[in-house]
């Protein structure tokens, strides 16, 4: 995995070198990268992408809520960063984003979803960091109990776990 | 046109309550059904609105795919040790998938399924086994790879089976769900059907209601048109106003009657232009009080007459019939009829009736006056005939005089009857209620009718049946007349038989008295009984023709009986006799003195007193007759030809009694009486007897008020006159103040000695006894009279003495003496001291009586009496 990451980083660095340098106002990840945001974004830290490690995410304004999900048993407390906040951090310009999981599951989330400030990119479940075995390390979670509109198949489909990459699209 | 509410009101819906109840129940059920269905649908919508899962098929297929990727990674790792990280990742992803499948909400429902639970447990077992190996160091993991591979190989079928079981289970769940939805759809369809049915029913009902309403509207319109026709064709004017009096309806007849057109009249205040001036204000005319008070007229206020006015200003009497139609907007409906012609007719009719009544009255008056006028000359004739008997006549002359007298008496009876009838018909007759002695009245009746009885050879008497009574309250004169009629009738139809009067109180309280006149005559057939009381009814009987009669007697008797509040009737058996009965309310007078003589054949009384009489009478014949009669009876008579002369005479001299005619020129009897009583003349306290031909009760009352003591009816009968004088002087309480009008036959008996009584006495006792008794009587009476005439008026023994002496005198027939003694006794009992002159007069009276007795008894008494006679 590290290897792949390194490989990818190298590729990205190579790409960066060939393109005019964009504003690099994001911190550079120090730990293992958890999330890569690419596409129509204004702020990057790794060539044309923005890469986040857990520390970076945890450094951002955190949001948490308690809700039940159809995949878990009982109430769950989620802590993470608001998707909106994240998109603002990367200066997303697109109308929607494509979220891609480790297992290559991919789904589109429209802009209004994050602008409504519903979903978060959770990194803690019940106070503990999430392993891949338990749908970690990142999981886009909606507050399903707060609004029946979040209890639809469309939203369930957008609730992507084992999130690895986000591509913002025009 | 306003419709009266009776027509406008729709027929009341029958069975409204059950219909409403059913409709309400249906509505509630319906609402419940809809709510229930709504709840079902909402629940379903709720279930649908939130998804229970993300894509199931994806999850299941992903499990397969992820397991395969894991196995591929296994294989890669066996060949290339640096692929261990990828193996770990693939393991974690598969692990995560399986965790989701065991803990996810969607899959929890499958845990009970054996096909699912078994493989799932085995796969989970494999994962749990593998976790320590995967998490171990690369070397250890590498070493364990073959084992993991083998295990993965063995659970591959389970992964597959578990996916398939989940699919099947979800298919089942899906089927259930579809079935649920189908059921819901069916429910909805049913409810929809019910709704449709209900709506159809509602539409049908509304349609029916609409048709009903239209029909009623039509009916109302027809009724309205009919009412319009009725109102318009009514011959009476119909005016309808609202509460404020504004005219709303004015029919054609009203237009004709008042002269206003409908458009002119409607909208105006009815009272301001339809009612005649002077009748408009409530204080002028209160018949419209109900309208003022804005209420319904009371039943007695609904019909009235008032004066209305036409457009031209003509006022006319009108009859109104008004009522108020109660509604939201109350209306007064008035039917108006012009009654001018009717009023005129009524006036004419009243006038005609008044004229007819006046005519009838004047006819009655004429009859009464004529009868009265006829009586005066008749009285003259009869009086003169009586006087002629005082002169010596030949036998032939006496016979002729008898005939003349009987014809005259018959004529007098006739005239009297007609006068009674006329008075009765003129309504001038009233029954009086005064105390009188019933036995005495009956005595009088028997006495009066005795000569008639003797004529036909009949015995006549009266008796009490049951306990005897004495004084009663009633109209003695009418009763006497009734009884004389009945007795006379009975005597006329009986030959050589007996007529008896039976008197009986019908009840213990002695309120009602029955007098029965029983004869042994020819009787009356039953068929005739009903008509004998009719006027001018004479039965076809030789007796009737023989005896004569007006046929008015029984009719008058019946009228008088009814006048006195009684009843009269007859029963008869042809050939055996008749019974006439009279029932009268004659209540007894308490404490009335017993008759001095229980003998029911008590003789008529004769005045033996020498009275100084003033006769005030304008009619010369009457004056002559009165003087002759009075002087023949031993009285002294002074004459006065009118009231003024009478007053003058009365002032000059003290008379014992004054006879006063009522109607006289110069000064009438009433005024004269007032003058005499009012003045201080010598005769101011002298009893005054009215002489009148027409003594109606109210007139008589007037006489008494002016100070007259008694009243005698003309024509004057000698016996009645003398008795009247005697009663006036003695002021006996029991005698009726006015003796009956029909003349009684004056019996020419001695005034001093009642021969009949004496004869009884003489025949009842042996001669020697008679002598002894007479001698003792004479002795005792000599003493008693001496005591009485010489004693002081205040002597307390006088009454007892007079009573004893009177009893003895009666036995021996010394009637005049007895009467004088009775008067003295009565006076004392009334509490008045006896008149000393009366006491002194006893002596002379006794002398005469004794002389008469002596003469009657002849020589037998001569001897014992002679010594005292000297």
What is the strand and helix layout of this fold?
The complex is a heterodimer of chains A (170) and B (870).
Chain A: H1 2-18, E1 33-39, E2 50-53, H2 54-59, E3 62-67, E4 76-82, H3 83-90, E5 96-101, E6 106-110, H4 111-115, E7 120-125, E8 128-129, E9 139-141, H5 153-158, E10 163-169
Parallel strand pairs in A: 1-10
Antiparallel strand pairs in A: 1-2, 3-4, 4-7, 5-6, 5-10, 7-8, 7-9
Chain B: H1 5-8, H2 16-49, H3 56-79, H4 84-103, H5 105-108, H6 114-135, H7 138-233, E1 237-242, E2 247-250, H8 252-258, H9 262-265, H10 270-273, H11 289-292, E3 303-309, E4 315-325, E5 331-338, H12 340-388, H13 395-425, E6 434-437, H14 438-455, E7 459-464, E8 471-474, H15 476-492, E9 498-505, E10 512-519, H16 526-529, H17 542-547, H18 553-563, E11 567-573, E12 577-585, E13 612-616, H19 620-632, E14 636-640, H20 643-652, E15 657-661, H21 669-678, E16 688-692, H22 697-706, E17 710-713, H23 718-730, H24 755-764, H25 767-790, H26 798-811, H27 815-829, H28 836-857, H29 859-869
Helix pairs in contact in B: 2-7, 3-4, 3-7, 4-6, 6-7, 12-13, 12-19, 14-15, 15-18, 20-21, 25-26, 25-28, 25-29, 26-27, 27-28, 28-29
Summarize the structure in words:
The complex is a heterodimer of chains A (170) and B (870). Chain A is of the alpha+beta class. Chain A has one domain (2-169): Alpha-Beta Complex (Sulfite Oxidase, Chain A, domain 2). Chain A is 25% helix and 31% strand. In chain A, a hairpin with an 8-residue loop joins β3 and β4 (76-82). A 5-stranded antiparallel sheet of chain B has the order 2-1-5-4-3. Chain B has a 5-stranded mixed sheet with strand order 7-9-10-12-11. The longest helix of chain B has 96 residues, at 138-233. Chain A binds chain B through residues 1-3, 69-73, 102-103, 105, 131-135, 148, 151-157, 159, 161-162, and chain B through 49-55, 62, 66, 69, 82, 85-86, 89, 92-93, 95-96, 99-100, 103-106, 108.
């Amino acid at each position: 995995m590290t290897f792949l990451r390194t490989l990818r980083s190298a590729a990205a660095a190579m790409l960066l070198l060939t393109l005019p340098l964009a504003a690099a106002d994001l911190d550079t990840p120090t730990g293992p990268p958890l999330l890569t945001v690419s596409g129509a974004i204004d702020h990057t830290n790794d060539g044309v992408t923005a890469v986040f490690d857990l520390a970076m995410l945890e450094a951002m304004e955190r949001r948490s809520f308690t809700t039940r999900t159809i995949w878990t048993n009982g109430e769950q407390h989620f802590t993470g960063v608001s998707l909106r906040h994240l998109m603002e951090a990367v200066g997303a310009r697109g109308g929607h984003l494509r979220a891609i999981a480790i297992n290559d599951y991919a789904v589109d989330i429209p802009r209004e979803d994050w602008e409504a400030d519903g979903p978060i990119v959770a990194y803690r479940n019940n106070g503990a960091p999430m392993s891949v075995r338990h749908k970690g390390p990142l999981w886009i979670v909606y507050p399903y109990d707060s609004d029946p509109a979040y209890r639809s198949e469309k939203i369930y489909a957008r609730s992507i776990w084992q999130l690895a990459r986000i591509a913002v699209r025009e | 046109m306003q419709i009266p509410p009776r027509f406008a009101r729709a027929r009341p819906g029958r069975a409204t309550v059950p219909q409403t109840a059913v409709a309400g129940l249906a509505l509630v059920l319906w609402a419940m059904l809809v709510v229930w269905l709504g709840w079902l649908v909402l629940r379903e919508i709720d279930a649908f609105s939130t998804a229970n899962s993300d894509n199931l098929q994806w999850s299941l297929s992903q499990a397969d795919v992820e397991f395969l990727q894991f196995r591929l990674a296994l294989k890669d790792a066996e060949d290339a040790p640096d692929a261990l990280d990828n193996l770990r990742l693939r393991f974690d992803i598969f692990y995560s998938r399986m965790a989701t499948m065991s803990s996810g909400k969607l899959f929890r429902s499958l845990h009970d399924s054996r096909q699912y639970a078994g493989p799932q447990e085995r796969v989970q077992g494999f994962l749990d086994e593998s976790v320590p190996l995967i998490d171990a160091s690369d070397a250890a993991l590498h070493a364990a790879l073959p084992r993991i591979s083998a295990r993965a190989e063995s659970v591959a079928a389970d992964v597959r089976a578990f996916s398939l079981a989940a699919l099947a289970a979800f298919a089942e769940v899906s089927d259930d769900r579809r079935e649920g939805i189908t059921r819901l759809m069916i429910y909805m369809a049913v409810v929809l059907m019910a709704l449709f049915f209900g709506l159809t029913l509602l539409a049908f009902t509304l349609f029916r209601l609409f048709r009903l309403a239209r029909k009623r509207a039509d009916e109302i319109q027809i009724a309205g048109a009919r009412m319009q026709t009725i109102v318009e064709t009514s011959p009476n004017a119909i005016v309808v106003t609202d509460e404020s009096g504004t005219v709303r309806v004015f029919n054609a007849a009203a237009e004709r009657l008042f002269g206003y057109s409908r458009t002119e009249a409607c909208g105006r205040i009815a009272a301001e232009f339809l009612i005649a001036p002077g009748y408009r204000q409530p204080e002028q005319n209160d018949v419209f009080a109900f309208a003022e008070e804005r209420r319904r007229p009371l039943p007695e206020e609904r019909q009235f007459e008032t004066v209305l006015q036409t457009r031209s200003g003509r006022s006319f009497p009108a009859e109104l019939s008004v009522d108020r139609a109660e509604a939201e907007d109350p209306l007064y409906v008035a039917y108006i009829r012009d009654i001018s012609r009717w009023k005129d007719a009524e006036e004419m009719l009243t006038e005609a009736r008044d004229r007819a009544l006046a005519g009838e009255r004047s006819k009655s008056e004429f009859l009464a006056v004529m009868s009265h006028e006829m009586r005066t000359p008749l009285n003259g004739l009869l009086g003169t005939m009586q006087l002629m008997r005082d002169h010596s006549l030949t036998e032939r002359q006496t016979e002729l005089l008898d005939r003349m007298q009987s014809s005259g008496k018959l004529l007098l009876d006739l005239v009297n009857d007609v006068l009674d009838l006329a008075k009765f018909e003129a309504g001038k007759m009233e029954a009086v209620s005064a105390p009188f002695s019933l036995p005495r009245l009956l005595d009088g009746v028997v006495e009066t009718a005795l000569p008639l009885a003797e004529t036909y050879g009949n015995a006549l008497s009266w008796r009490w049946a049951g306990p005897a009574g004495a004084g009663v309250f009633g109209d003695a004169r009418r009763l006497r007349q009734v009884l004389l009629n009945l007795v006379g009738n009975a005597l006329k139809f009986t030959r050589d038989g007996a007529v008896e009067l039976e008197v009986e109180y019908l009840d213990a309280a002695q309120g009602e008295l029955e007098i029965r006149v029983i004869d042994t005559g020819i009787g009356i057939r039953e068929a005739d009984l009903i008509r004998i009381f009719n006027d001018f009814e004479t039965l076809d009987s030789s007796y009737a023709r023989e005896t004569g009669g007006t046929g008015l007697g029984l009719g008058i008797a019946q009228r008088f009986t009814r006048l006195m509040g009684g009843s009269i009737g007859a029963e008869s058996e042809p050939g055996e006799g008749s019974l006439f009965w009279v029932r009268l309310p004659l209540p007894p007078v308490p404490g009335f003195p017993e008759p001095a003589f229980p003998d029911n054949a008590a003789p008529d009384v004769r005045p033996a007193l020498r009275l100084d009489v003033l006769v005030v009478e304008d009619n010369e014949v009457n004056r002559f007759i009165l003087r002759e009669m009075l002087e023949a009876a031993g009285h002294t008579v002074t004459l006065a030809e009118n009231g003024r002369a009478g007053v003058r005479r009365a002032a000059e001299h003290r008379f014992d009694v004054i006879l006063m005619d009522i109607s006289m020129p110069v000064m009438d009897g009433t005024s004269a009486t007032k003058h005499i009583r009012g003045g201080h003349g010598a005769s101011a306290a002298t009893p005054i007897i009215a002489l009148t031909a027409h003594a109606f009760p109210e007139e008589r009352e007037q006489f008494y008020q002016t100070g007259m003591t008694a009243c005698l009816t003309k024509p004057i009968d000698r016996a009645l006159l003398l008795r009247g004088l005697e009663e006036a002087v003695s002021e006996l309480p029991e005698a009726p103040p006015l003796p009956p009008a029909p003349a009684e036959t004056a019996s020419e008996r001695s005034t001093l000695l009642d021969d009949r009584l004496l004869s009884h006495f003489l025949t009842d006792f042996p001669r020697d006894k008679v002598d002894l008794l007479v001698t003792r009587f004479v002795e005792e009476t000599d003493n008693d009279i001496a005591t009485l005439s010489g004693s002081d008026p205040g002597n307390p023994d006088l009454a007892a003495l007079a009573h004893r002496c009177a009893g003895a005198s009666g036995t021996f027939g010394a009637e005049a003496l007895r009467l004088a003694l009775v008067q003295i006794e009565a006076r004392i009992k009334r509490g008045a001291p006896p008149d000393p002159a009366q006491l002194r007069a006893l002596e002379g009276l006794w002398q005469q009586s004794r002389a008469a007795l002596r003469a009657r008894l002849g020589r037998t008494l001569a001897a014992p009496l002679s010594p005292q006679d000297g």
